Amino acid sequence: MENIILAFQNVVTIENVSLILFGTLVGIIVGALPGLSVNMGIALLFPITFAFQGMSGILMLIGIYCGAIYGGSVSAILLNTPGTPASAATTLDGYPMAIKNGEPGRALGISTFSSVFGGLFSAACLMIVSPLLAKVALQFSAPEYFALAIFGISIITSVSSKSIIKGMMGGIFGLLISTIGIDSMTSHLRFTFGSIYLMGGISFVPVLIGLFAFSQALLTVEDAYGEEAVKYNVKLDRVFPSIADLKRIFFTVLRSSFIGTFIGAVPGTGGDIASYISYNEAKRWSKHKNEFGKGAVEGVAAPEAGNNAVSGGAFVPMLTLGIPGDGATAIILGALMVQGIQPGPLLFTEHTSKVYAIFLGLFVANAIMGILGFSSIRLFVKVVNVPKKILIPIIFTLTFVGAFAINNSLIDVFVMVFFGIAGYFLIKFDFSMSAIVIGIILGPLAESNLRRALVMSSGNISIFFTRPISLFFICVSVLSLVAPIISAFIRERRLEVDNFKA
Amino acid sequence: MKKWSYIIACVTTIIGGTFIYLSKDFPQKAGNAPGPGLWPGLLGAVLIGLSLILVISTLTTKKTSMMENMVLLTVPIKRVYKLMGITIAFTVILYFFGFVIATLLFIPAVMYLLEVRSLKYMVTTSLLVTTFIYVVFVLILNIPLPKPIFFR
Which pTM value belongs to this model? Predict the structure, then answer.
């Protein structure tokens, strides 16, 4: 209780609430614009966090994270184009309700209510579950930490890329990048080629901006080729959901919030998976199945509650184990590390007030998201009309400013451009940017604990297989990598047999 | 034609091999702990192993993925290459002339590439964005931006 009061005093200040408000507002705008992702929004504003002390910058990033997931629903409902992949399922019923049924206000109102409920529900779950999980994780030693890092990388690479092999390659690229610089255990220089810049390792933030923002902006330029700017003029009647709608969607929203929180807590999954599963479950349990696809209220509520509930869930492995749940939490984890805070079980004993500040920040961000959603939705609707011809140069300029701002170094700008261009081609070749970033983040954790564990066992690698928790994580890692390959192989064989029979 | 998978496998093998080659000269032991070459060497070997798996899976799979049919010289991609050129030129101008001058040139250049032809529109956007970023970062947040080489 003492920690909650302390965190409350830290978070509920004019500066911090203003920053969360600013972050949430930017997040909603970024989310509402098709072509801009949640990760891009967080990466672009990451350098601003350096201007603030303590948790203020982190709270702003939390606001962007929550706001961007919600913002994706605006363009999903009005344009039939999801602002973010997490809102793809919202188009199925949101667009028919808004345009075909002529009820855009109703669709946006239900989306806002469900998003806020999902976000608050997951924040509450995070607050209850994570301290318990952290207590278990406190018993971990070097072999368990190494196995955990491998688990985090493998599970993310197995689901985040179209090809599991390329997902793993991306993870290894990230791990290799993290080895550049001075070795933390022996102070030996590795892969620096006499460069003073490389002695400190490749700076994480320019890589992040390059991979998540610069490369995405290049893809937007490619996609925007020949695209005609169309102005959308939508008149909104009312934006508050009616009591009848609230009664009808209550259990759907509750179920979807639970699904979203659970899925978010599994590293590597994300809002897109949560929203589709929530949508399917809503359809399965609905008494109005025939309305789905034509503007069913449950069809709008379920994916929005599900994808926003991912936010709290994704913080569970990040805060308790130091394993980011998705690309966005990977960036927030990086921001915490820049502030000298290492997420993991020790965070709960050493920086308890900061953990509770994050919990509270999520509550405040979701509450602000609701206030902004209901009061300013008419403004956000106009945002989708901002032409890409203006937006793209602004994004590029911000990537340069962001990369320079960390160390006031132009070398960081060159590094950002290099990784941005490399990222563009890697995305085209089906590599996952999240896998690379998570590899960079977890690299030092994996390496130092591998070496510590080998010291403990006098060089015997059986230490990883004789300790139950370590063995569990290694088994799950292997399963997560092998299972998709085997299932794809079986599917292909079945298809061949079916074709042969036909 | 599955050339891209083979090219990717070749490139990753070279990267993996380079890391193994460079790691071999690192100390093998540090006291009773493994030396700094163990981890990067191990990762390099895994990368080569993955390249081999990629080659084998490409050879044994009949299905051709969309990625394999990708052409990197289409008109929209050529526009991306031009933009890459502009960004590289921008970083060089940034180094010599600082943020303000470089951005005032960069924004109209990108807008022109995106088929904006109104000079008024380009100049106004460029001035507004540059001023806004300068005010927010330098004056409000105290975050410095690149200065011209003769002011450093």
Answer: 0.86
